Structures are given as C-alpha cells and as structure tokens.
Amino acid sequence: MLFEGQCLQASLNENGIADIVFNAQGSVNKFDQQTVSELNDLCAALEKNSDIKAAVVRSAKSTFIVGADITEFTGLFAEPEEKLLEWVANTSQVFDRFEDLPFPTVAAINGFALGGGCEMTLACDLRVADTTAAIGLPEVKLGLMPGFGGTVRLPRVIGADNAMEWMTTGKDRNAEKALNEGAIDAATAPEQLVAVANQMAADAAAGDIDWQARRAAKKAPLKLNRNEMMMSFATAKGMVFAQAGKHYPAPHMVVETLEKAATLDREGALKLENAGFVKLAKSEAATAQVGIFLADQVVKGKGKKQAKSATKKFEQAGVLGAGIMGGGIAYQSAVKGTKTIMKDIAEPALQLGLDEASKILDKGMKRGKVSSKKMAATLNNIVPTLDYKALENVDIVIEAVVENPKVKGIVLKETEETVADDAIICSNTSTISINALAENLSKPERFCGMHFFNPVHRMPLVEIIRGEKTSEETIANVVAMTLKMGKTPIVVNDCPGFLVNRVLFPYFAGFSKLLLDGADFVAVDKVMEKIFGWPMGPAFLLDVVGIDTADHAADVMADGFPERMKKVDNDPVTLLYKAERYGQKNQKGFYNHGLDKRGKPQKTPAEEAYELMSAHVADKKDFDAEEIIARLMIPMANEAIRCLEEGIVDSAAEADMALLYGLGFPPFRGGIFRYIDTMGVANFVALADKFAHLGEVYQVTDGAREMAKNNQKYCG
Hints:
CATH class of the largest domain: Alpha Beta
Keywords: Fatty acid metabolism, Isomerase, Lipid degradation, Lipid metabolism, Lyase, Multifunctional enzyme, NAD, Oxidoreductase
Organism: Planctobacterium marinum
GO molecular function, one term: NAD+ binding
Shape: globular
Pathway: Lipid metabolism; fatty acid beta-oxidation
Structural class: alpha/beta
Strand order of the largest sheet: 13-12-11-14-15-16-17-18
CATH superfamily of the largest domain: 2-enoyl-CoA Hydratase, Chain A, domain 1
Pfam families: 3HCDH, 3HCDH_N, ECH_1
Helix content: 40-55%
C-alpha cells in the first residue's frame, strides 16, 4: 500500500502503475478539508517512490467527485479575507503539487466530476470518461468561480472560448460532448473504464503519449495573439452581461480573471484566481446562493425523510377539473409515469386539458427534449372522462376546479362518495382554508391541500397544506406523490393563503397603496425587476396571475385577516376587475397584451388603466427606488416573519425555498429571510418603523424586535 487515509487510498500494481482511489466514508466523494489534506500527504508519499511509472486516479463509488464540501463554506467564508485567501491558495497549491508529480497521471471519470472534482481531473495529464460521466464547473450557480485551478487549466486544455462558456453558465457536459470539446481524451463503456485508463497510463509511461507537452501547456500562458484575445473576451463579456445581468458578479469575474491571466504562467494565473474567488466568496450574492443550496438540501432531505413513511405506490391518480391548472397537473403526473384519470363535467373542458398537455409536449419536442415515444406514453397515461366512476380505483385524487369554496365543497363531497375508502383526496386551492373545505368530508384525516403553481410543468414548488385533522400518513403519502411528480414539496399548516399567497398579498397591498399615492406602475415594475431582481414587477405579475383571480383572493385574505389585510379603498386591482380588465387572459389589465411581428408576447402600458385610476390616485410622483422597494418588500417580509412565528412554516430555510420556487424570489438575494438577514434584522426593523404610518402590514412583530435587540439572524 502506497498510502491509506480515510478518504484516499493508493497501491502499486505489477506494471508500476499507482492506483489512486477516492473512497470517502460518506455516500459520495467530495473535497472537504480532510480530503485535501490527504491529497497533499498522498503527493508527499508518491514523490518519494521511484518505482511508480504512472498513476490512475479513480473513484470507488458510483460517481467520481461531486465537488467541494459546501457545508464547510459558511464557516470558511466568514473568516477574514486574508485567512480565506490563505485557505484557497494552500488548497490550489495541493492540486499544483499533484500536477507536478514526476510521472504521467490519468483520471478515470465515472458519474459526476463537478467543481473540485473536475479540477482534480484537470490536474491530471490525461482524462478518460465512461458514458455515465457528467463533467463541469458549476461554481457560478453558487455565486462563485473555480478556486482550485479550474480557470487556469481548463482554458489551456479546451481553449478560452469553450472554457468561458463552461464556467460562465455552469453547465456540465456528458462524455461525448466533453470529448468533442477536448476536455477528455477518450470515452468508453463503464465496464472498460479502469482498463482503458490503465492502458493510457502505460502508453504515457512508455513514451507513446507526450504527457510532458500536455502538462507544459497547462502551465504556460494562453496561446492567443492580441487580436484573438480582444475578440474572445469582448464577445464573452457581451454574452455574460446579456445572460447574467448586473446582479450576478461571478460570471463577470470569470471572464475578467481569464482575460488578465491570459498572458501569465500557472503561478501568476492562480494568484488572480485565488483573489477573484475570495472577492466573490465575500459577496452578498455568494452568501445568498450558497444559502439557497444549503436550504434546498434541507428541504429535499426533509421531503425524502417524510416520503419514507408513505404507504402508497401511486399507480393511478385522478385530477378533477381539466382547465389550464388541471391539465397541467394531469400532464405532470402522466409524464412521470402515473396513469392519470382527468375528469370534468364537459367535453370541451376535457379537450382543453388534453390540449394543455399536448402543447407542453410539442414545445419539448421542438427543443429536442421530448421524444415521440415519450409524447405518446404521456398522452396515453392521461385518460379523460366525464364519469365519476372512473375514479373508483385511484390512489389519490387532486381537485382543481374553480376557486370557489361552495363549488369545491360539492365536488369534494361527491369525490369522497366515489373513491376507495383509503384513497387520498387533495385540493389544489391557492387561498381557501383546508379546515373549512374538510368540513365537507366524513374522513378529513385523508384530506389536505396540494397547491401547485402556474405553469405547473415549470414551477418546482408544491405547497402541501396540513389541516387540523389531516393525518401524518396522508402528509407522508402526498409528499411521496409530489416527489414522484418531480416537484419539491414544502409542508405548511393551514391558514388563509397558506404561506406563499399569504406573504404575496401584503406585497400587492403595498403596491396598490403606492399607486394611490401617485406612483406610476410602469416605474414600479421597472424598479422591482431591474433593481430588486423579480422576474416580473407587481403590475405585470397581477396581469399574469389574473386581475379577477387576484381580486377574489384579496377578498379571501381580507376575510381571514380583517385588521391587517382589509382591502384598500379604491384598490387599482379592484378598479381594473370591475372594468373587466382581467390581465393576460383577456389581453387587458395594467398592460395591453398581444404579439409582436415575430409572434412573441409583448405588453404596452394601458392608457385605459391610467384613466380608470385617475380619479382615485394622488398627483403623479416620482418615488426613488429605495422607497419603492421598501414599501413593497416590508409587508412581504413582515408577513413571512408572522408565518414563521405562528408555525405556519417550520423554518426560515423552507420559507426561503417556497418563495424562490413558488414566486421566483431573486436567487441572488437568497430568499425573504436571507434578505432580512443581509440587511440586518435591526436595520429591517428601523426601516419598517419609518413606514409604520402606512398601515398594519408595515408593523413589525415583537419577536422581530427581540431578534433585532439580541443581534440574531433568521438563517443559521
């Protein structure tokens, strides 16, 4: 045995080839500080052994190395800059040390080789991957850039243009694409991987492969002349700005670092990479995006744990109501392999639901993401019917009829009388109390809310609402079904609006009050999109949700929270609703909607909307961006705090992910609680107090004041 550690082992075979095996004690290999330390010790052992002719680096697990240990990042990134720089420099020098071993090295890549795992393969002279491999540098998705030599080695292996595309998008490559781009030297079947890697190592040791020249190229400046560099980096800067915008500094830093390092050798280029990594690690965007990753792990881990208690396999599902939502839910169930009975009261409605599924599949086929076989299988899994009896054998039925408590109550009662005694019944309601709907059922313990977001096939969140009488078995089963549908479940307790809509409507109330005080809805949308980072400003979002839907939901919220969410007098949303301006669904709301010459959706501010509001709003006033953001976000943040304090949601992490997945909360801000923490709870309380005169939704809770006083945070 050449070396034996907790995460790494190395032995020498009869041909003089060192077999270096990553085999961490957990389920996957990752570069935590223990593994980096062992890699350094391994290098020391290998440097002294003159019997080694070559080395193969491989994994004993089903995947190579998934990257750095992100759970260590929070503590590391809190260190002073000089300490963080020392850590990343020392770590990258361990990769240098491996690259400088006095014999050729070959990486045998199976499964994921991401981040630090990809950088490990780049430190090798040669790379072979099997057909399961996924290779890439996804650090930008965490608000970071490669920190273990990736920005230095990758452009010198595959060229600057390809490398910048890899690193600024964070997308991984399969073996075929990686081979075509020159990131690997061979691709093979999984069962041949180790043999091919060993043969490659033997060929290199025998001098049949010029590994020294390959290594020298990775340590030298980029081979680009001045014009090539100018064109390459100017193009990359333009593409990054168009795709990432100003809120995500990481991809910009990647391009800037590569440009400055282009004329430098490995040592100089690595110093620039280390400095760039530290600058990003200290940024609010990285804190937020790493926080999102960790919160996502919490949510997914909780979901998997809950689903282990499931008692059903969900071979057959039912959907009641075949509109846009019902059709979307039926599609999502069917595309994941569950036979789905779609029931409605009219043939045209059923056709609408089938058309919705076909439309989604058609788009997938045009993009090359859906095969004709997949399309046929999905459509075959959707069984339209007008007859309740077709639901007799379903394991779960999801009601998605009109958002009216009386209608839903009747449908739920009829459903319970039809389905099996152990079938689970869910309501896809967005605001109506689950406890109130449960009163229509004789077995409320098998009933809960299952709130999907529109469009169903694209929005990852499903809010699962636990009623007072909902059993834990029902919750576990619905979580399992949600996971089977490819969605992220977050369980919340019942209240009007649940979590997502409960925090959204105070935001809308802040918007309405702002308009009544003289703000221009176009200016507000621009600030909330371009500066705060929402995918849609509030006026556009209301048009997309539907003005009629929003007005109805506002009534429900007002009934549920009469003191805090009483409807605003002369609410612009209500004015539009009464004028039958329903938003995108009838092409007129705050904006007039249509198609441009290329058939793409376009919107223009509606003069009719301004006229409807004119008699009720103050004289036009220009509000600065900070005030616009404060007046919309304080009500949302306050309501999120109340939901956490009342136990509607179990944790700040789940609340952050719910708003990210359900509303498109700006990822670079990390979620509503991360946003409050970034500002500082004391600063948030002071800001809210500044606007307290505007009404109840601006009043902070005693709990928030206590946290501010004690300098506490919502996110760990």
